[in-house]
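Bench notes, afternoon.
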Amino acid sequence: MFFERPKSGELAVLVHLKLDSENEPEDPREFEELVISAGGDPIFLLVGSRHTPHRKYFVGTGKLDELKQIVFDHCANLVIFNHSLSPSQERNLELVLECRVLDRTGLILDIFAQRALTHEGKLQVELAQLQHMSTRLVRGWTHLERQKGGIGLRGPGETQLETDRRLLRARIKSILKRLTKVRSQRDQGRRSRDRAEIPTISLVGYTNAGKSTLFNRLSESDVYVADQLFATLDPTMRHIELDDVGSAILADTVGFISHLPHKLIEAFKATLEETASAALLLHVVDAPSEMRQINIKHVNDVLLEIGALTLPTLVIFNKIDLLDYAEPRIDRDENGKPTAVWLSAQTGLGCELLLQAMSEMLAKDLICEQLKLAPSMGKLRAILYESNAVIGEKLMDNGDFILEVRIPRAHYLRILKAVKIKPSQLNAAR
């Protein structure tokens, strides 16, 4: 990767300020989990409060002196802020603290860089890193002279900086071109699934809510699962079979987080478009979490940004095995439509209710009736059986078959077209 990252186990001092100007303050516990997920070793958490951030150092001068002493006492070589810092604030802090300084955005980008496995994922992460670091390039050349007027005052610094910026712009342009090709391939795949009328079900939710565990449970896969933030980065898709629906595509996606950097949302648009075009969203929620409602809001904010908030959604309250007196159930609205399912992906408790709710939401325009087939329609009868559409059958004395079928109308019409039977012909045979 173009930019260096903290090495595993790097001693880090964490800084978290409560700002009066913040409507939704960050969670210091989640901040510490992020640092651990990045491979850092948090040795001290410095907390404080301010009305607004200090223009030069983000923290006040008194808190800065305290921070410098903590860094010296613990021999730390990294300070991480649970906030977004401007490039000048990062440079000023590094000059005073004499160690590397990282903000929340840089920390999340680092975790993504470690987790990306596929070619597409690496491209998307590198794009986000380049866009984030483009404003911070000058930090790497502060030891060089600036070009100034006068003999003896001209130096290579500004020239080198412009060279780096030009190379960086060229690299960003190259990555965008390759990601455009990836997006085109994804669009082609989606169009193929649309033509075959295979619905896509996308798992979304706050990071570490249990999406990958549920994905493995439903698809009988072995996607990497870990009790850490952003364990899953690269999207994974699997075929599943649903009653009354047939084949469907289940997609596991990257977890969301509060104030997810906009650069990441932009970089991962090719992946997030799978979510925006899904037939059904499964919004997985960590039910025992004290931050449950806040996390739901953060996920909805990202869904709104990618244009997916209005899609049909089923809320999955996961990890009920960690709750007292929680039983698996389906919550429904006044019309009887499923709105939420309570389950445990870890133990499998309630997963059959989820399959039932998914089938109900996807099986629109369902044909449930008895068909009378003449003996000459044996091919149609065989295909209906292969499609698991037959739930009962009776043989008449004249050789006709009375089939009780349950099948989506679109699939039913495709079958009739394949055997070259018009609906009117079948109606006459009833």
